[in-house]
Design a protein that fits this description.
The structure holds 2 protein chains of 2 kinds. Chain A is an all-beta fold. In chain A, about 0% of the residues lie in helices and about 50% in strands. In chain A, the strands form 2 sheets. In chain A, strands 2, 4, 5, 6, 9, 10 and 11 form a 7-stranded mixed beta sheet that branches. Chain A has a 4-stranded antiparallel beta sheet with strand order 1-3-8-7, with no helix packed on it. The radius of gyration of chain A is 13 Å and the shape is globular. Chain B is an all-beta fold. In chain B, strands 2, 5, 6, 10, 11 and 12 form a 6-stranded mixed beta sheet that branches. The radius of gyration of chain B is 13 Å and the shape is globular. The chains are: A mainly beta, B mainly beta. At the A-B interface, β5, β9 and β10 of A face β6 of B.
């Protein structure tokens, strides 16, 4: 199946700093990527839908200025957590949709564990 | 609006016994149904999906799921559980038309005891 990578897998940053997480589709071009946040023992919360070449669509309650999403190419989307706070500590997962797939399947990255101290 | 319910936060089963992880859904139109598995600190791995056709769908690692339209259910099953099956399982649904973004259930933690 298709492969989606995320980098870094784990990051620790200080409160007030910004951190960037990359999501790459390795063997297909993803016109659409999704960013999720997962709290311990909870389901995935969709944060935003990232479309190549256009602005991301954010879900209600997600701060656009805090969680900056850029989808500059068909294989790369980035999530930047700006002015990070300890409450931003979470597991962030991206997924990419293969537009050539029969059923618009989503392929998930391995996730990034963010810890803000 | 579409929704998914996984009524059990945790399922415990002895190794070698059959397992069932329950999922019910609500969606407009025909459902596209998915099961994913997540191991600790990892992303989601696709297990199986139902789009159309046979109600019994076979997937990875010996898992299968049965689509029941009248009960709007898509329960995940395996005839003989392994300790290595212990993980978090997510059911997801999306409609055949409109938004292609799936809705995920809250997840069920499967614990297989030796």
């Amino acid at each position: 199946g298709a492969v989606v990578s995320q980098h870094p897998s784990r990051v620790i940053c200080k409160s007030g700093t910004s951190v960037k997480i990359e999501c790459r589709s390795l063997d297909f071009q993803a016109t659409t990527m999704f960013w999720y946040r997962q709290f311990p023992k909870q389901s995935l919360m969709l944060m935003a839908t990232s479309n190549e070449g256009s602005k991301a669509t954010y879900e209600q309650g997600v701060e656009k200025d805090k969680f900056l999403i850029n989808h500059a190419s068909l294989t790369l989307s980035t999530l930047t957590v700006t002015s990070a706070h300890p409450e931003d500590s979470s597991f962030y997962i991206c997924s990419a949709r293969d537009p050539t797939g029969v059923d618009y399947e989503q392929y998930f990255g391995p996730g990034t564990r963010l810890t803000v101290t | 609006a579409q929704s998914v319910a996984q009524p059990e936060d945790q399922v415990n089963v002895a190794e070698g016994n059959p397992l069932t992880v329950k999922c019910t859904y609500s969606v407009s139109g025909n459902p596209y149904l998915f099961w994913y598995v997540q191991y600790p600190n990892r992303g989601l791995q696709f297990l199986l999906k139902y789009i159309t056709g046979d109600n019994l769908v076979k997937g990875s690692y010996g898992f299968e799921a049965e689509f029941n339209k009248s009960q709007t259910s898509f329960h995940l099953k395996k005839p003989s559980a392994l300790v290595s099956d212990s993980a978090l399982y997510f059911c997801a649904v999306r409609g055949s038309g409109g938004s292609y973004i799936p809705t995920f259930g809250r997840g069920t933690s499967l614990i297989v005891h030796p």
